[in-house]
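Structure record:
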Amino acid sequence: MNNPFSHPLERIFAAASGSGRPTGGWALVGAWLDCISALYRRYVQAKNAAYGIGLFRQVRLPWPTISVGNLTLGGTGKTPMVMWLAGYLAESGTSVVVLSRGYGRVDSRPSAGTSDSLARGTAAKDDEAFGVDVTHRFAGGAARSAQELADEIRVELEGQKDGRAGRAMFELRSHRGLASGARVLRVACPERARVASAMAPVLDRLGGKWVFLLDDGLQHRRLARDLDVVMVSFLEPLAGARLFPAGAFREPPSSLHRAQVVVLTHVDTVGGGTARRQREAVRRLAPDAAVVEGSHRISSVRVFPATRAQNVASPGPAAPGGAPLSGRVGPEAENRDADWLKGKRMLAFCGIGKPAQFVSSLTSAGGVVVASVPFPDHHAYESRDISAIVARATKNEVDLLATTEKDVNRLGEYRFPFPLAVVAVDLEFTSGVEGLKAEISRALGRPPAGAPLLI
């Protein structure tokens, strides 16, 4: 039976090219998907070969670069992995620049966020954004904002006379509970190699140790990296993998040979022969890589109270204190632990790569999911979506609504007549973490270069 909370494309894949023999029109659809998939495979192989022989040149950044990526269209848990790496590096005294594409941005013009503007959601709607942003104090005691740092970087971009890299969004934050004085800066821009190169002289002036963390970087071959971390889900068998659009893979499993670390996620969802075959496939494809296993757990919940129903169909007014409902903690949010969800009837909604895994995490935490409303990955919410969510919730007499941190960044100022629980998910390692840390140390051992280099 098809999962009603799966992505629409997944249901098409299952009908047209999944298990069993498709018949009738589905057989024709499956044949077309296979043809396009074969062409896409050849493109990916040609691109990787061109980088492998040096036909396409890479940019070597002046500071160590760590990439986190995956083989599939989503659902492996890259974001919790990126956040774990950023926290681990920052706690050791190394400042981090997270380079991401910035999915879901509304405004492509150069924008920067200070603690105030980002908390109010005025910089951009970006579902990969950090949850809490603050003005940071740099070395020497001078208080400077993300806006000032972004201005410096844009000066460098203007000096290069290249406007494409100027479409960047900047966030600067202090890592929660961080005592090392390290900084965590996130830059969202499609032209990651260009904007990172422009940042190099600015980071040199700031001083300290830095590392670039490339979010969703396996396919971004333009930037050279010192460590490739590839996420692989136990729920996506490598054996018999089919490339997009006939399947969920955007890179053939053979690309795992580029990884120095393979992180197997959702270890708690499968067992027996399925888990054994996936582990064997990883060992065969990446024999020299460190293999880490882990699972995702709800670590905390932020609860926004219900508001009046008349505010549902359109963006609501500012809350007391001026902060709208957004991905950042506002004055009206209450922080709870995962146990708070136990026994509560809820409607789950999200627009992520694997929405069924979100429902599973809620159920594992003791929540009672009585209804669900799935949306496509990186979905930009509109008033009709909110109305549909509220209608389903009202019909099912739920206690609350539940969504993800990524989704709440795309809700803007919409209000609900039900409490809204925004769950934070962390990655918990069950084995292999020492091997991961050893590879990180090796990558950080590269001495910094003086300037970005073409290699």
